[in-house]
Design a protein that fits this description.
Elements lengths: L13 H75 L7 H9 L12 H9 L7 H23 L1 H14 L2 H16 L5 H7 L10 H19 L3 H20 L5
Length: 257
């Protein structure tokens, strides 16, 4: 009859069990911290990439907004001159070249389209969380300002259409087209004022000298400029763009003008 001998198992002390547990715990904890640090580094790197892209978008927006402002300031000044002319003299006593030129700008039209691809991508993917709180807040505020400006423009579409219809009852499109060509050239080269001065002295015929039509035209134009372009929407947007650009540069150590 065989006798089976059971191997002797040496029991570990509590201290040994505790040390093993501690080593496993430290390994898991350090692994967790290492993974967290790795993710933070990756998110910061991604945030910086988004910030650089958004900064370029904002630079393009700023150029567009400056041009937008210059255009409507120029248009508003010409409309002011038209009002002064009509207030000071009878319509038939005014050189018609002046009426055509200054009246042209009642139909001034501009459309701001923000370069917001980066922001919209971050918003839709949840990547705005990569930004620090100040940058995320500034970016969201800028987007709200963009939406507000676009909403203001949309509300003016019906008034703009009415302005063009009324202008067509007063001014012959052929001479309007000549004035508009001169204006477009002036935008390209602000030093070329000679053609404007020459046009102001011409006497193209009007379709109507009716004071009521002129009065309706002026009132419609005033409503456009007072309700939208004179409230400083573009100025507010430019200011917020500047704030956001500076925030991105500071937080992510970006270079640029």
């Amino acid at each position: 009859m065989e006798v089976h001998h059971h191997p002797h198992v040496e029991k570990k002390s509590f201290r040994e069990y505790f040390l093993e547990f501690l080593m496993i715990f430290l390994a898991v904890t350090l692994g967790f911290f290492a993974e967290t640090i790795r993710e933070n580094i990756a998110e910061h790197r991604k945030a910086k990439e988004f910030a650089e892209s958004m900064l370029n978008d904002l630079k393009e927006d700023s150029v567009q907004l400056r041009s937008y402002n210059e255009y409507f300031e120029f248009a508003a000044n010409n409309i002011d001159t038209l009002q002064q002319l009509l207030s000071a003299a009878d319509t038939k006593a005014i050189v018609t070249g002046k009426l055509y030129w200054y009246g042209l700008f009642g139909g001034a039209y501009g459309h701001f389209v923000p370069n917001d691809e980066t922001f919209q991508q971050m918003k839709s993917s949840g990547s705005l969380r990569y930004f620090e709180k100040e940058a995320s807040s500034a970016a969201s505020k800028y987007d709200r300002f963009c939406r507000l400006m676009q909403s203001n423009e949309q509300t003016q579409e019906s008034i703009y259409t009415e302005v063009r219809k009324l202008r067509a009852q007063i001014f012959d499109f052929r001479y309007n087209d000549i004035a508009n060509t001169i204006a477009q050239q002036y935008y390209k080269d602000h030093s070329d004022y000679g053609r404007i001065d020459s046009f102001l002295k011409t006497r193209p015929p009007l379709l109507s000298y009716d004071k009521t039509l002129f009065n309706e035209y002026i009132e419609l134009v005033r409503s456009r400029f007072i309700r939208v372009y004179n409230v400083g929407a573009a100025d507010s947007l430019m200011h917020q763009a500047s704030v956001l650009m500076q925030t991105l540069k500071t937080e992510y150590h970006l270079k640029g003008e």
